[in-house]
Amino acid sequence: MFDLDFSPPEGLNRSLWRSLLINLADRFAPERLPPLILTSKPVDVGLLPGELLELPWYRTVFSNLADVISPETLPPLELESRPVDVGELLGDELSHGWWNSLLQNLRDRIAPDRLPPLELTSHPVAAFGADSSLQILDWSSLIVGPKVFRADVPQARPANVSFGEAAPVEAPEAAPADPVLLIARVQLMRDIGRTHFRRKIWISLAAAEAIFLLVMMFKFQ
Predict the structure, then answer these.
(1) How far out from the chain centre does Cα 17 lie?
(2) Concatenated DSSP letters for 96-152?
(3) Residue 41 — φ and ψ, nearest 5°?
(4) How far is Cα 118 from Cα 121, in angstroms, rounded to an integer?
(5) pTM of the predicted protein model
(6) How confident is the model at residue 201 (pLDDT cuts 50, 70, 90)?
(7) First CA to last CA distance, the chain
(8) CB 19 within 8 A of CB 11
(9) Inter-CA distances, 140 with 43, 133, 149, 162, 192, Å
């Protein structure tokens, strides 16, 4: 294990005048470093993406035509690893029709796959009191400090008024209905009813097609 040092760098604790003098010394009398010696050879990577985008259109047209007419012959690809069967990919699964998904869901519902029992290698850790009962502590028991019990605020009692002395409550007058709102409400209810009717028709057609597919599947087996 390495000793990790998360303390700030030493230059962070320098004073303002000392940092200013160091910067001036680096500006007027910089440190003379030896020339850089590269021990590795550069690798030819071809044109960089920025340079490729800066090429004129006629150069890219001729290069594309050359790739189409006489493409570069590459050596055969040699795989050193064995492919792993990951099953059906998500893109292939989404490209199937809805009837395949319906049949697969029915198969999983009627005859699901028998999986081996799950083997746990670690024992569950029981929390404090979780094996017998679950206790939720009050905030008053978690807060450290003296408990202060304040008296209840007295509530004013209503005066006793007889039924005859009570003032009659006037019923609010009903506002006149707007005919434009009534027409819009009737049209909205009509559209909702038509939507429910169309939904029932589509559900009936889908159920009939599913039943037809099931009958044809069991008939030709």
Answers:
(1) 51
(2) S-HHHHHHHHHHHHHS---PPPP--SSPPPP-TTTTT---PPPHHHHS-S----PPP
(3) -95, 140
(4) 10
(5) 0.22
(6) very high
(7) 66
(8) yes
(9) 71, 21, 11, 45, 53
Span 14-51, pLDDT tens digits = 888 888 898 899 888 888 888 888 888 888 887 788 88
State residue 17's pLDDT score. 87
3-state secondary structure of 82: coil
What are the φ/ψ torsions at residue 5 (nearest 5 degrees)?
-110, 110
pLDDT tens for each residue of 94-149: 777 788 888 888 888 888 888 888 887 766 655 555 555 555 555 555 556 666 67
Structure tokens, 86:
């990951």
Q: Which of 18, 21, 41 is nearest to 29 (CA)?
A: 21
Q: Count Cβ neighbours within 10 Å for each residue of 174-207 and write b for 16 or more, e otherwise.
A: eeeeeeeeeeeeeeeeeeeeeeeeeeeeeeeeee
Q: Which residues contact 99 (CB under 8 A, 6 or more apart)?
A: 209, 210, 213
**Looking at this protein, which amino acid is placed at residue 123?**
H
Which pLDDT does position 202 carry in this prediction? 92
Measured CA to CA, the distance from residue 221 to residue 211 in angstroms comes to 16
